[in-house]
Amino acid sequence: MAEHRVTCIPGDGIGPEIMAATKVALAATGVRIVWIDMEAGADVMDKYGTPLPQRVIDSIRDTRVAIKGPITTPIGSGFRSVNVALRKELDLYANLRPAVSIPGVKSRFEGVDLVVVRENTEDLYAGVEHMVGKDAAESIKIITRYGSERIARFAFEYARREGRRKVTAVHKANIMKLSDGLFLDVARGMAANYPDIEFEDRIVDNMCMQLVQKPELYDVLLCPNLYGDILSDLCAGLVGGLGVAPGANIGEGIAVFEPVHGSAPKYAGLDKADPTALILSAVLMLGHLGETEAAQVLFEAVRQVIGEGEHVTYDLGGRAGTAEMGRAVAERVERLRK
Ligand code: NAD
After folding, report:
1. Which CATH superfamily is domain 1-93+245-338 in?
2. With contact defined as beta carbons under 8 Å apart, do 93 and 150 qualify?
3. Strand, coil or helix: what is 166?
4. How far is the CA of 166 from the centre of ligand 1 (A)?
5. Homologous superfamily, domain 108-238
6. Residue 281: CB within 6 Å of ligand 1?
7. Cβ neighbours of residue 62 under 8 Å, at least 6 residues apart?
8. Which residues touch 20 (CB under 8 Å, ≥6 apart)?
9. Which residue, 78, 155, 183, 257, could crosslink 281 as a Cys pair with Cβ 3.0–4.6 Å?
10. Residue 168: CB within 6 Å of ligand 1?
């Protein structure tokens, strides 16, 4: 059996606890992973003089695959977000956020199966902002043909590979005729290369309404950065919230898997946080590594443990701690493999 080298960044806050639970669940799959453990975040500032030591980036460049827990970004401290820095440094241009209903997770909808494909480097996140005098500020929205093409291609390739039927481009091209207009034009042009995948577009405000009324009509949502950020939280809400929302940041031959949620500092060290979002991020990672069967088994184990509701954390209506839920998933993986 192949051996995979994976960089592991537990992060801070609840990160180390949910990572430990995820490693227990992953070990049960039998997939051979050599972990390269790396520290990053607020806790390592004193030790390395930076929250993102160069060795972390070097390790990810070397292993090409990483799994990461959340990292705190203190507000107003001049501390640059490690998460944004990593995405920029490694040019992880595609942010993939699936939102899938899991029976047993309380939510208003059933049968939701959506994927947000969010452009991760441009738009209002390019960081081009300035004051105009002291009473006005400008943030510049940057959309390029290059950035739009690679994310559109990614969305259609993903749809084809995963057997999905439709890509919906999300925009506000009726108002931002040039920037969002370019994004939409490029998406339309790309769609012509994929006649097997249905294509449509929606204006972002209408998209929000449609998603909360009939989410089952949608499949892959192709979004510029800001709309993707907002819609992915909305979609996480459709299936029960942040505790169960996995994610991946993907570049050319390189991928970092991480949950959508943050470091939830108030639960740090309490063995309380839900490890599901990180375990589901590990499911995506197994798929990326070509370990399809293990990915399916791990996903099914999570579904069963949540469905039974006995060994689940507080947010899923249970009394289990993080470690207990991780062990329950691991035991179920072992049973399913027999
Ligand atoms: P958060 O996602 O950390 O927490 C919001 C609330 O959601 C928590 O208080 C908790 O009630 C709940 N929650 C989140 N994850 C949970 C889990 N696994 N199990 C159970 N409940 C969970 O969001 P925040 O409070 O806005 O951010 C805290 C810190 O995390 C900030 O410094 C922020 O910058 C950072 N952050 C990091 C990432 C990342 O590393 N990718 C992403 C988002 C936020």
Report:
1. Isopropylmalate Dehydrogenase (3.40.718.10)
2. yes
3. strand
4. 31
5. Isopropylmalate Dehydrogenase (3.40.718.10)
6. no
7. 5, 7, 36
8. 10, 322, 323, 326
9. 257
10. no
Catalytic one of 37, 58, 91, 205: 205
Minimum CA distance residue for ligand 1 atom 34: 73
CA distance 311 to 288: 28
**What atom of ligand 1 comes closest to residue 14's alpha carbon?**
18
Which member of 93, 125, 218, 227 is catalytic? 125
Provide CATH 3.40.718.10 ranges for the chain. 1-93+245-338, 108-238
**Minimum CA distance residue for ligand 1 atom 27:** 262
Ligand 1: does its nearest atom lie under 6 Å from the Cβ of 51? Answer: no
What number of other Cβ atoms are within 10 A of residue 78's Cβ? 5
Model pLDDT for residues 110-133, shown as the tens digit of each residue: 999 999 999 999 999 887 889 999
pLDDT digits (tens, 9 = 90+) for 67-105: 999 998 877 666 678 888 899 899 999 999 999 999 999
CA dihedral (29, 219, 238, 120) in degrees, to 10, reads: 80
The Cα–Cα gap between 203 and 174 comes to 8
Q: What is the pLDDT of residues 170-222, one digit of tens each?
A: 999 999 999 999 999 999 999 999 999 999 999 999 999 999 999 999 999 99
The catalytic position among 229, 233, 274, 315 is 229
Best residue among 82, 263, 314 to mutate for probing ligand 1, ranked by most atoms within 8 Å of CB: 263
The model's pTM is 0.94
Asked if 282 and 247 count as a contact pair (C-beta separation under 8 A), the reply is no
Question: Which tokens hold the place of 226?
Answer: 């800001």
Q: For ligand 1, atom 10, which residue shows the shortest CA distance?
A: 264
Q: How would you label 132-159 residue by residue, b for 16+ Cβ within 10 Å and e otherwise?
A: eeeeeeeeebbbbeebbebbbebbbebb
> What are the beta bridge partners of residue 50?
none
Closest CA to 311 of 329, 296, 336: 329
Kindly state the tokens that stand for 219.
């499949």
